[in-house]
Design brief:
Elements (H helix, E strand, L loop, with lengths): L6 H12 L6 H4 L14 H16 L4 H14 L7 H14 L10 H8 L3 H27 L4 E2 L7 H12 L6 H11 L9 H14 L3 H14 L4 H9 L4 H18 L14 H16 L3 H14 L7 H11 L3 H10 L5 H15 L4 H9 L5 H9 L10 E2 L4 H18 L2
Antiparallel strand pairs: 1-2
Helix pairs in contact: 3-4, 3-5, 5-6, 5-7, 10-11, 11-12, 12-13, 13-14, 14-15, 15-16, 16-17, 16-18, 16-21, 17-18, 18-19, 18-21, 19-21, 20-21
Protein name: Tetratricopeptide repeat protein
Organism: Planococcus lenghuensis
Length: 423
């Protein structure tokens, strides 16, 4: 398969645009990207695009969305056709099947007759296009609504760009959709410039989260605190390196309380409204910290509160909640939760389920450990169980796939220590 030299840039740009998907599947079609003028098409591909454009014009159909889909399809899919009209017919038919034109009533026969292609040829390219569109939509829905494969107390990598886009839009209150689209197009290649102290402080916070140095994170957090001391992320960053327990909890509580005061609940999925994320992040970080302090009763309250607000669980809260339920001896609830958690971290489910069975059977600490070590599962988890060292604070960012052993051990450690302390 031939991959155009600019394919990587194209796919990265599309992914950026799709991150702001708001849950309306039809709106996805408008997010396939605006790449005319940037890409070069072969003479055959230009003929395909011209045929599609001609059909849209003659039938009075909205052009931009369909042309974007056609461009992306030609760049992504290998097409070996003799007749440009055959591919154009397939593009129109496949898009029609996926409701790109709404509920427009048109038969495949009518499309075939317009482009002068046989039913078999039309069906071939229609199915290719329909599968292509369905795959793109499925991928976006999965990214937006599935439990993330990377979680932690830091923001997800895409959040900063989403916040910048939201902030740009909020500066043009009252503008029409077309005006907003035009302004965003004009501004998208310009560096984001904060306009208020709070925006500058939030930018410092994102700089801190992006930094690989603890000292720099703290310095940036302090700079942000001078501008907006009540900002949730300011207090989360100050909390993470504070050694005094009482002051640390004060920072966490301030982050939670100020975050919830700003929280907007009028969304089916509150995570998709970017300004809500600092509040959700604060609840997650505070709950995770409470687990490390042995206060799993309070952790349960915070994590359950978080899961009520972020029911799609983009943060992996359910895993921490399951660990805390085991620690508190709420085994039936833990079992029910483990049955429905996302399957990304299958080893975590296996180990936690085994520990739940051991606790339910009244096993001793040694017997529970032996049962975990006997599992036919990730050896990395077993190595950590044998060494049984305190894993510390929940990671700032951890992959549930590549670092599943570390993640699983963190979840196991706290209920195991509670069991050991009870003997």
């Amino acid at each position: 398969m031939f991959i155009p030299p600019n394919q990587k840039k194209l796919m990265e740009a599309i992914k950026e645009r799709l991150q702001s998907f708001d849950g309306d599947v039809l709106s996805l079609y408008k997010l396939f990207g605006e790449f005319e003028g940037e890409l070069e098409f072969s003479a055959f591909e230009q003929d395909v695009l011209a045929a599609v454009d001609r059909y849209l014009t003659e039938h009075g159909l909205e052009r931009d969305t369909m042309m974007r889909i056609a461009q992306l399809f030609l760049l992504k899919e290998p097409v070996n056709a003799r007749k440009a009209e055959a591919v154009a017919a397939g593009l129109i038919a496949g898009a029609t099947e996926n409701a790109v034109f709404g509920d427009r009533d048109v038969t495949q026969k009518e499309i075939g007759e317009y482009f002068d292609v046989t039913g078999g040829t039309l069906a071939k390219y229609r199915d290719m296009v329909a599968d292509f569109i369905a795959e793109r939509v499925s991928q976006v829905v999965s990214e937006q609504f599935g439990t993330a494969e990377e979680i932690g107390t830091d923001p997800q990598p895409t959040e900063r760009e989403l916040w910048e886009m939201f902030t740009r839009v909020s500066r043009h209150e009252g503008a029409s959709a077309d005006e907003l689209d035009r302004m965003l197009q004009e501004e998208q290649n310009q560096p984001f410039e904060p306009a208020t102290d709070e925006e500058r402080a939030q930018q410092f916070c994102y700089d801190a989260y992006d930094s690989g140095s603890d000292a720099e994170r703290l310095q940036l957090a302090r700079q942000a605190a001078e501008l907006a001391p009540d900002l949730p992320d300011v207090n989360l960053l100050l909390a993470e390196q504070e050694e005094d327990i009482l002051q640390k909890e004060t920072y966490f509580l301030k982050a939670v309380n100020t975050g919830l005061r700003r929280y907007e609940s009028d969304f089916d999925d509150s995570w998709l409204y970017v300004p809500n994320r600092p509040a959700l992040r604060a609840l997650f970080a505070f709950g995770a910290w409470k687990i490390t302090q042995g206060d799993t009763e309070r952790a349960l309250q915070e994590l359950a509160h978080l899961l009520e607000r972020n029911s799609q669980d983009h943060q992996g809260t359910g895993w921490l909640l399951a660990s805390s339920l085991l620690t508190e001896g709420k085994l039936a609830e833990a079992g029910q939760l483990l049955d429905v958690l996302d399957s990304v971290a299958e080893n975590a489910r296996l180990y936690l389920s085994q520990l739940r069975e051991s606790l339910e059977a009244g096993a001793s600490y040694d017997a529970a450990v032996d049962a975990l070590l006997a599992l036919d599962a990730d050896e990395g988890v077993k190595e950590r169980i044998r060494s049984i060292t305190d894993p510390g604070m929940f990671p700032r960012r951890i992959s549930l796939v590549e670092e599943e052993a570390q993640f699983t051990y963190w979840l196991l450690y706290w209920p195991l220590m509670k069991l050991k302390a009870a003997e």
